Description:
Number of strands: 0
Structural class: mainly alpha
Number of domains: 1
Largest sheet: none
Order of helices and strands: HHHHHHH
Strand content: under 5%
Mean pLDDT: 90
Amino acid sequence: MQYIKAIHIIFVITWFAGLFYLPRLFVYIREADEKKQSHDLRAQLILMADRLLYIITWPSAVLTFIFGNWIMIKTGYYKIMLTSGGSWMGIKYLLVIALYAYHISLDVFLRKLKNNALTMNSFKLRLYNEIPTVLLIAIVMLVVVKSNISAIYGVFGLLILVVVLISASYLYRRARNK
Length: 178
């Protein structure tokens, strides 16, 4: 079982690498569009995003799902998800589902970018890029702390994190526009 957990963690890491870098490529593509930079630069960034999504990120997401559910079945975690002692696992599973929804949205964004149909500007994409950070922190805290975490403190901590990330994005935007 330890090997399965190790493989699961490896694919979680490679999946997150894609989830962190792909929206950053989207920001660069939108900035290239906004600054009317060369078509070659845009084409190269689209190619990089396409390869990242379909060669690394999607396979990692699928393998994360397979090995994660394998662990849940083999360890019996699926049995305790709806009990008070296992509620952390149910919440974690919901957060992981949100992460898959985010991943699917990136696929939609890339398709729109390829057709010049994405309406989000680079700043909104920067903010959107912070979603996996918040989800990662929430998931790791749930897995490590488990039932000892207070839901109120957890939600409050995540709200503070979101405010800090958004504030940092606005400060970066202001400094960049000077």
